[in-house]
Amino acid sequence: MRADRAPAMPNADDERTVLQKRVDRRRALGILLGGVAVGAQAMTACSPVAPMTDEARETRLLAWREYIKGNYRSMTETERGETIARLERLAKVTRGADVKIQSTSAQPGVMFGYAFNISKCKGFRNCVEACINENNLDRRAGTQYIRIFEMEDGVVDLDEADATFQHEVPAEGHFYMGTQCFQCADPPCVKVCPVGATWQEPDGITVIDYDWCIGCRYCMAACPYWARRFNWSAPDVPVAEINPNQHYLGNRARKMGVVEKCTFCIHRTRQGRLPACAEACPTGARVFGNLLDPSSEIRWVLANKKVFRLKEDLKTEPRFWYFTD
Amino acid sequence: MHLKPFVLSALRSATTGGRRYHVWMGSLTLIMLAGAYAYSLQLRYGLGVTGMSDHVSWGLYISNFTFLVGMAAAAMMLVLPAYILHDVDFGRAVLMAEAVAVAAIVMCLGFVVVDIGNPLGSWHLIPGVGYLNWPRSLLAWDVVVLNGYLVINLAIPFYILYGRFRGRPPEKRRYLIWMYIAVMWAVSIHLVTAFLLAGLPARPFWNTALLGPRFLASAFTAGPAFVILLLWFIKQTTKYEIADGAFAKLALITTVTAQINLIMLGSELFYKFYSPTHHGINARYLFFGLDGHHALVPWIWTAIAVNAIATVVLMIHPLRHDPRWLMPACAALFIGIWVEKGMGLVIPGFIPSPLGEIVEYTPTVVELGVTAGVWALGLFVLTVLVRVALPIELGEVRSPYIEKATPSAPIVRPRSTPPLRQPTPPVRTR
Fold first, then answer.
1. Residue B94, pLDDT score
2. pLDDT value of residue A140
3. Which residues of B touch A29 (CB under 8 A)?
4. Which of A180, A186, A226 to mutate to test the interface with B (most CBs of B within 10 A)?
């Protein structure tokens, strides 16, 4: 009927795969129900009462295919490509944003680690701002992954610290300590997820499949470092401010009602770049690198500085160390 | 061939009644509708319409959930003596207790559903099409045991009632094994829910070995207390006879468990406050307030006072045997434990946060509306179940296909027993 049919719509290929029985039950069910949906939409289209634009039809179909897709970990490369195509198209159709979503997997021989120099940090919070922009964090809710705690000299105690300071920094007689997701080697948040929507990647980054998360927030209760954030309402990022360089497991658009977290800027670091926070830090307090590379700066810090981690007694083995000059 | 009349008669039992019955059910329906509207707002605008935040990420919903899991489990405390220890006094109370269990589980599932941010994704929990992270996640365990418990508690009463309905007394050898399973299952649903919280070292307030036993003790206090109230109401308003012995035994159970509950609370307080450590900071917030924040302080002290007074009343024998004291004491225990175990257990686990920040929590109107709606749903289910079970138990309702000669039911009552409730006369004489 129409020539401008979008490529992501169900087509003859799907039919063939069904016939060849090379799909699992969920997918088959989805394709069948999808057919029903198309039929229903065709009827709506014929009805004089509710004419539906091609775009609305396409959006609805894409949303439906997104709804029935599986967990990212169980997807084949082809399926990953398909869902990314759908998500990019949806961003274009619904927001008018041209985004590029990658699915770069962990590079062999890489285990990311982070070190934070307490002596250098001056509490400027450039890292916080860079993180917000880089990771498309919800502007309306003011979501932040990084917290900078201001502490009085001589007391390393988060209970006495203030993360909401609003004055000129560095304040006399104070020092600063940043927290974010520590990418624990034994993450309690991963263990508790009832649907396996969050897991640790081979390079040590704990990620979330935002489309698989059911929003129970058990992981938030389980995290000893308060690293996870929830989308209490639909996240809002002005189109002009959207960072188009995205990763499926990282900074792509989240939806309402799901959990998100710091991924050490997975879309940058897997391509050999620094996380946005490390790049933005004007004092050089942030050291990021590959723990498996003996010549990396992070290895030098671990070997030559007196390092410590927060709440070591919990045995979650964070890959985030603190040190002083 | 008995199934259709069974369903029809159940529908009839549930939809006929006096004026007060209809007012009650009508009110519940209105509250449910209001709750549904509140939930629709939450669906549209997100959980941001509640008082929860990244700091206090569970609130009223999960508080009610933990409390009601206990209610569901506690109903089995009646089943145990009745079916396994053959205590005849309890026999008639059991079906009512199972109705309480079913209603409580329905509410539990309701509170979980309204709490999750992406309810449309619930199918991700179904093994096969989705993925259930079992046995690693305690929440996956909870999904399994709660649904299993619901099925068991629907199946056993159905078997018993349907048997009586078609004039075939239920056979013990068929259902007794399920009773054993149900009793163990009851303990498991509550322990699993306690472990769900106790297994988190991130939250020292919950991360204690006593949490599981404390959950059981408080559940086995609030549960029987509620069942006492329900049975007393049934006894007052229907012809269903419940032996005084059943009340005495239930009251005794409640008394003992209420004492154990207070002892455990005491040891928890000793542990947290005698040598105050960093791990006691949430308890400090709960009981005394922290840095000028003390939203929960009046709640917890009221709850403890109410619990203690009610326990003392129950411990005095003449008072325990007097309904005028027993019923208020049971109501007080029910409410006291609801506060202590709901608001007083879940919320302080989040305050202060693991990074020491204090953000308080107050439920919003929308949240209260949804909560009221789920409670109304549970009470609605409970009323319907009791309403269906009573006439069958009384022998008033029987399958029309039973031959006249068949002996009626184990509870022998003449067929001519007047209906459960007389139709309301047009003019009230009183």
1. 78
2. 95
3. 129
4. A226
Q: Is residue B200 within 8 angstroms of chain A, CB to CB? A: yes
Kindly determine whether residue B128 and residue A25, on different chains, have CB atoms separated by under 8 Å. Answer: yes
- On whether the CB atoms of residues B402 and B6 are closer than 8 A, the answer is no
B52 CB neighbours in chain A (<8 A) are 232
Consecutive 10-residue averages of pLDDT for chain B (430 residues): 87 90 97 98 97 97 95 78 66 81 95 96 94 94 94 89 86 81 89 95 95 92 92 90 85 93 94 91 95 94 96 95 95 96 93 95 97 98 93 84 55 46 47
Comparing CB atoms, the residue among A195, A217, A220 nearest residue B124 is: A195
**Prediction ipTM score:** 0.89
Interface test with A, best of B42, B139, B147, B193 (most A CBs within 10 A): B139
Residues 122-151 of B with CB under 8 A from A: 122, 124-125, 128-133, 136-140, 143
Q: Cβ separation of B125 and A195 shorter than 8 Å? A: yes
Q: What is the 3-state secondary structure (H, E, C) of chain B?
A: CCHHHHHHHHHHHHHCCCHHHHHHHHHHHHHHHHHHHHHHHHHHHCHHHCCCCCCCCCCHHHHHHHHHHHHHHHCHHHHHHHHHCCCHHHHHHHHHHHHHHHHHHHHHHHHHHHHCCCHHHHHHHCECCECCCCCCCHHHHHHHHHHHHHHHHHHHHHHHHHHHHCCCCCCHHHHHHHHHHHHHHHHHHHHHHHHHHHCCCCCCCCCCCCHHHHHHHHHHHHHHHHHHHHHHHHHHHCCCCCCHHHHHHHHHHHHHHHHHHHHHHHHHHHHHHCCCCHHHHHHHHHHHCECCECCCHHHHHHHHHHHHHHHHHHHCHHHHCCHHHHHHHHHHHHHHHHHHHHHHHHHHHHCCCCCCCCCCCCCCHHHHHHHHHHHHHHHHHHHHHHHHHHHHHCCCCCCCCCCCCCCCCCCCCCCCCCCCCCCCCCCCCC
Determine whether the interchain pair A233/B119 forms a contact, defined as Cβ–Cβ distance below 8 Å.
Answer: no
DSSP sequence for A40-103: HHHHHHHSSSS---HHHHHHHHHHHHHHT---GGG--HHHHHHHHHHHHHHIIIII----EEE-
Could you tell me which chain A residue has the CA closest to the CA of B281?
Answer: A159
Nearest to B142 by CA among B165, B121, B125: B125
* pTM (2 d.p.): 0.88
How do A100-102 and A245-247 pair as beta strands?
parallel
Burial class (CB within 10 angstroms; exposed 0-12, middle 13-18, buried 19+) of B120? exposed
Cβ within 8 Å, pair A67-B120: yes
Task: Tell me the average pLDDT across A60-89.
Answer: 96
Mutation pick from B41, B291, B355 vs chain A, by most beta carbons of A within 10 Å, is B355
Residue A50 banded pLDDT, cuts 50, 70, 90: low
Note whether B124 contacts A71, CB cutoff 8 Å.
yes
B61 contacts on A by Cβ (under 8 Å):
none
Q: Report how far residue A109's alpha carbon sits from residue A62's, in angstroms, rounded to the nearest whole number.
A: 37
Joined together, the tokens standing for residue A38 give 């198309």
Does the pLDDT at position A135 exceed 70?
yes
Would you give the distance in Å from CA B61 to the centre of its chain?
Answer: 14
The verdict on a CB contact (< 8 Å) between A215 and B349 is no
For residues A112 and B280, give the distance between their C-alpha atoms in angstroms, rounded to a whole number: 35
Contact A217 B139 (CB under 8 A): no
List, as ranges, residues 216-275 from B with C-beta within 8 Å of A. none
- Which residue, among B21, B57, B138, has the nearest Cα to B361 in the 3D structure? B57
Is the CB of A224 less than 8 angstroms away from the CB of B118?
no
